[in-house]
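Work Package 4 report. The design task specified in the project plan requires that, given a folded chain encoded as structure tokens, an amino acid be chosen for each position. We show below one input record used in the internal validation round.
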């Protein structure tokens, strides 16, 4: 019964992605629709969800111990899964792809799916919601530090101020005094806050559907004639790239420095150069390096995406549960704290992995494929894992 009920609830969540998928496939949404909706999600709906989760909740001093355990486990378990993922993907080809796999393996969808899933699975249990909010504070802090480092490998890209200066965390900081002091928020104020916060789950799933519509499920197989033509085009590009080097080899220093410098082309849109011939606009041949970076597989035929799903949806929650149960043998830990963290660890990959890949020039194809695949597969994995709760 627990499996069926959880299965239905998770399916209800994933089905929310269908409108975004259909609207994008029918071209009713523009190319950058996902990015525009993501701004609304990050700056409006999620902050109000954080506030509505804390407002008018009764605070007791006994909760502080449970909150402390959540903070400790949230930081420790994420770090543990991160280290395990680095070991598992150490032989993955391509540094950018390897980093995207590691980040996608431990960054969970806590903010967008965590609270709504808790509300559906444990209606009326406000403690589970509060544990998720506390976990989300630690998650945001580690996302802007360890998450950025996981994608870039560059400590200089980590900005500590982002730990606090992000909309969800600011919203929690605003709401915490009201929670700790048990200040009652009038219904006239709570109603619009709740409405805006309740947009978080459907809006995040619509964005997921839009991104799914823009991706290939399977890698495209090019005809032999097209492959031969591309091979010939690449040889021409290689010859053209070799000519400047050959000419420079026989030129004097004066001849080289007399030439006008060539300004770099902006890579904002990563668009290939175009050539115009007899009124027709066609893409010019890509360079060899660009060809190597072109994704050759789709979502469903990429082995590393399935491995990421296994780590995120199975290894992460089971490893977390094992650690918490071992610690529970030594220290008294509230049962619902363990259950809440176990479910949070089972959440699919967060969109943060894809967002950071896009922001810092990482492997956004792998990050997007992992995010989508994990969200689809969690329809089965979360209900199966929920059956273990009876033994906790």
């Amino acid at each position: 019964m627990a499996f069926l009920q959880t299965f239905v609830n998770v399916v209800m969540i994933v089905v929310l992605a269908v409108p975004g998928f259909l609207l994008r496939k029918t071209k009713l949404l523009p190319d950058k629709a996902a990015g525009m909706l993501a701004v609304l999600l990050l700056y409006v709906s999620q902050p109000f969800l954080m506030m509505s989760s804390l407002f008018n909740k009764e605070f007791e001093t006994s909760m502080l111990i449970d909150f402390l355990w959540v903070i400790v486990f949230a930081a420790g378990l994420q770090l543990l899964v991160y280290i395990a993922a680095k070991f598992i993907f150490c032989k993955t080809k391509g540094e950018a792809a390897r980093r995207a796999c590691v980040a996608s393996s431990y960054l969970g969808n806590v903010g967008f799916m965590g609270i709504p899933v808790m509300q559906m699975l444990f209606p009326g249990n406000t403690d589970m919601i509060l544990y998720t909010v506390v976990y989300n504070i630690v998650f945001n802090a580690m996302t802007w530090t360890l998450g950025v480092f996981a994608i870039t490998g560059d400590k200089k890209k980590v900005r500590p101020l982002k730990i606090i200066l992000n909309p969800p965390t600011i919203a929690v900081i605003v709401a915490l005094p009201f929670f700790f002091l048990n200040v009652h928020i009038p219904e006239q104020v709570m109603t619009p806050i709740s409405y805006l916060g309740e947009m978080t789950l459907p809006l995040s799933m619509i964005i997921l559907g839009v991104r799914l519509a823009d991706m290939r499920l399977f890698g495209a197989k090019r005809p032999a004639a097209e492959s031969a033509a591309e091979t010939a085009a690449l040889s021409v590009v290689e010859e053209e790239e070799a000519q400047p080097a050959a000419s420079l080899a026989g030129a004097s220093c004066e001849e080289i420095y007399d030439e006008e410098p060539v300004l770099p082309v902006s890579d904002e849109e990563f668009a290939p150069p175009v050539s115009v011939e007899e009124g027709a606009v066609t893409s010019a041949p890509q360079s060899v390096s660009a060809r190597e970076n072109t994704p050759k597989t789709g979502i469903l035929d990429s082995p590393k995406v399935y491995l990421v799903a296994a780590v995120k949806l199975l290894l992460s929650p089971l490893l977390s549960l094992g650690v918490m149960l071992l610690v529970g043998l030594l220290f008294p830990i509230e049962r619902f704290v363990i259950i809440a963290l176990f479910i949070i660890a089972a959440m699919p990959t967060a969109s943060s992995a894809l967002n950071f890949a896009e922001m810092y020039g990482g492997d956004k194809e792998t990050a997007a494929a992992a995010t989508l695949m994990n969200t689809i597969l969690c329809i089965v994995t979360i209900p199966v894992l929920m059956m273990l709760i009876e033994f906790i």
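The first helix runs from residue 2 to 14. Validation will be extended to a larger panel in the next phase.
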